[in-house]
Write a structure and sequence with these properties.
79 residues, alpha+beta, three-stranded mixed sheet, 25% helix
């Protein structure tokens, strides 16, 4: 069964940019790892570290316009 976890909610989808991380290659026992990985990538994508500005622009500037979710559906095989 699919499980949707909200990571960032900034507003209605009609007025926001929606990003959904899809679990591919994560077995049922790896759900927490998938959610951890999705949160880590979200944090990285929106970070404002001076070393990352060129990589994360425009995401860091416009974070308030994004909704981010993680959709988990267990895979039969890991990897």
């Amino acid at each position: 069964m699919a499980d949707l976890t909200n990571i960032i909610s900034s507003g209605a989808s009609s007025k926001s940019i929606d990003i959904v991380f899809l679990a591919e290659g994560y077995q049922a026992s790896e759900k927490e790892k998938f959610l951890f990985d999705a949160q880590n990538f979200t944090d990285y994508m929106f970070s404002v570290s001076s070393n990352l500005n060129r990589l994360n622009d425009p995401f860091s500037k416009y974070q308030k316009f994004f909704n981010v979710n993680a959709l988990f559906l267990a895979s039969a095989q890991s990897g």
